[in-house]
Amino acid sequence: MYNFEKLTVWQKTLDFCELIYKHTKGFPKEEAFGLTAQLRRASTSILLNISEGCACSSKREFRHFLNIALCSQYEVATIIRLCQRLNLLVEEDYTKIGKLLHGLINSLKSDN
Asked: Among the four residues 20, 74, 87, 110, which has the most C-beta atoms within 10 Å?
């Protein structure tokens, strides 16, 4: 087991990515290279940046990757809002991941 697999935020993001892939299977074919691909890439980016950050040698570097993950989470939130307006997705709680990322980033600010 890698150390990132122990992080609650990583576990929740893995679950979330799986959910995104399942939900986007039903998107219209004309969105395969649009919203479907972008939503999948952005959600996966959250997961990958958390993992990659865990390999860093300092808390400062780790925070950097967590901030990138947080930016991707904001992107996901925006895409989900658009998909809801287009009636492609129902209400989805994507805020948990952002809250967990904020908490982890803040916990790492005390040390460099």
From this structure: 20
Alpha helical stretches, state H, 1-112: 8-24, 35-54, 59-85, 95-107
Q: 1-53: per-residue pLDDT in tens? A: 899 999 999 999 999 999 999 999 999 999 999 999 999 999 999 999 999 99
For residue 112, being part of any structural domain is answered with no
Q: For residue 100, give Cα distances in angstroms to 10, 20, 93.
A: 9, 18, 13
Domain count, the chain: 1
- 50 within 8 A of 16, measured Cβ to Cβ: no
Q: DSSP states of 4-23 as a string? A: GGG-HHHHHHHHHHHHHHHH
CATH label of the domain that carries residue 63 = 1.20.1440.60
Show the tokens assigned to 30: 């004309």
Exposed e or buried b per residue across 70-85, where buried means at least 16 C-beta atoms within 10 angstroms of its C-beta: bebbebbbebbeebee
